[in-house]
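Case study 2.
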Amino acid sequence: MTRKSHFIHSTAMAVMVSAAGVAVPAAQSATIDEAEAARKQAAAAGYEWRDTSKIIAKAREAESKGDQAKAQRFAAEAKAQSELAVQQSRQQANNWRNTVPR
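Prediction:
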């Protein structure tokens, strides 16, 4: 992967993350526990994203206030971020050699 294609791939991942926060279909909704489990998996891979735990905290706060729909949206966003982080770790594990200058 050239530097240019690496940049394009990174940009595409950022767009996917942004899209994940905008609207999550009901079929992809997640519980806070599922989001937390996914976050732990990403952390174990060494690729936990900066805001994922903050989003889970927002989900817990919304749930404690009785706003289940908002809590579920936050949980789904956190789970999606964690799943993308795990994908990122696998991609980097397979392609790191392509990013080293030769």
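The helical segments are 3-22, 32-45, 52-64, 68-95.
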